[in-house]
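From the shared-data thread, chain only:
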Amino acid sequence: MQTDKTDELKIINTTKDDLVDIFWLFEQAMELQGKKGYKVWDNIDKIGLEKDIENRLQYKILKGKDILCIFSIQHNDPYIWRDRDKMMQFICIELL
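Structure, as tokens:
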């Protein structure tokens, strides 16, 4: 069985030129989450996304010219980690 070569995939920083695609991906994700009964964000934090791009914290996974995925690196996120947020920051710092 032949599989796709991993060297065809690239992980690189997003740029402001990607914003239209990024917003579209977020809108699609929000629509799908709503259809599946998951809590959906009230809106897209466009300023936050632009800051992530500016600070080179957002990445895209490409196959050829197609964006397969986008993700941002967060140094902390109290919304997700709640009371464990400080502990997670410590673990990340130790790993670095």
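The first helix runs from residue 19 to 35.
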